[in-house]
C-alpha cells in the first residue's frame, strides 16, 4: 500500500500509531519511509508493506517511483484542512489514474481528534 496526501495531514503519525502503537511527539516531514504491519484477515495472517510518501510538491517527480506493483493506494486528508480534501480530486486521484489507472484507492480522513 502506498499512502498519499498533502503534507502535514497526519499520514506519518497515523502509520506510526498503526504499526508501533505509539504516537510521535514531534512533526518530522517525511521524504519516503516504509513500514510493515501484521494483521489477521479471515483467519489468515497478512503482512502489509506500507510506503509513506512526501506530500510536498518538491517530491512530485520522485513520488511515482514508489508506485509500481502497488496493490492499493490510501489517499489521506485532514478533516481540519479543506484544501487537503480538495486536493484529493485536484491532485491525488489524477496522479494515481495517470500512473496506475487500474489500481484501487481508499480515502482516509485524519486528525478527527482535532475537529470541533
Automatic annotation (TrEMBL):
- Which UniProt keywords are present, listed alphabetically? GTP-binding, Nucleotide-binding
Q: Which GO terms describe its biological process?
A: small GTPase-mediated signal transduction
Q: Cite the SUPFAM superfamilies for this sequence.
A: P-loop containing nucleoside triphosphate hydrolases
Matches recorded under Pfam families: Ras
As for family, the record states: Belongs to the small GTPase superfamily. Rho family.
Which PANTHER family does the UniProt record give? RHO FAMILY GTPASE (PTHR24072)
Task: Provide the protein name.
Answer: Uncharacterized protein
Amino acid at each position: 500500500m502506498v499512502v498519499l496526501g498533502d503534507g502535514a495531514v497526519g499520514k506519518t503519525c497515523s502509520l506510526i500509531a498503526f504499526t508501533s502503537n505509539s504516537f510521535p511527539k514531534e512533526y518530522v516531514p517525511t521524504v519516503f519511509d516504509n513500514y510493515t504491519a501484521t494483521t489477521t484477515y479471515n483467519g489468515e495472517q497478512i503482512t502489509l508493506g506500507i510506503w509513506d510518501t512526501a506530500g510536498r510538491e518538491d517530491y512530485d517527480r520522485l513520488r511515482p517511483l514508489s508506485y509500481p506493483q502497488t496493490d492499493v493506494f490510501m489517499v489521506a486528508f485532514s478533516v481540519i484542512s479543506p484544501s487537503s480534501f480538495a486536493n484529493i480530486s485536484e491532485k491525488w486521484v489524477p496522479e494515481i489514474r495517470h500512473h496506475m489507472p487500474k489500481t484501487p484507492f481508499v480515502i482516509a480522513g485524519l486528525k478527527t481528534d482535532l475537529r470541533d
